[in-house]
Amino acid sequence: MDMLMFQLQKQSSVPLYKQLYREIRTAITAGKIAVGTKLPSKRKLADYLQISQTTVELAYSQLVAEGFIEPRPRKGFFTMPVEELAYLDLPQEEPAIRDVPKPSYAYDFNPARIDTRSFPFPTWRKTAREVIDEENHELLLAGHPQGDESLRVEIARYLYQSRGVVCEPEQIIVGSGTEQLMPLLIRLFDKNLNFGFENPGYALTHSIFEHDDRQAFPIAVDEDGIDVQELDKTGVDIAYVTPSHQFPTGSILSATRRAQLLNWAAAKPERFIIEDDYDSEFRYTSQPIPALQSMDVGGRVIYISTFSKSIMPSLRIAYLVLPPRLLNAYRNTFLHYTSTVPRIDQQIVATFMQKGHFSRHLNRMRKLYRKKLECLMQALSPYQPIVTVSGEQAGMHVVLTIDTERTEQNLVSLASDAGIRVFAMQNYDLLKQRSTSPKIVLGFGGLNEVEIQQGVEQLMHSWNIQKNQLTPNG
Question: What are the tens digits of pLDDT across the range 410-425?
Answer without folding.
Answer: 999 999 999 999 999 9
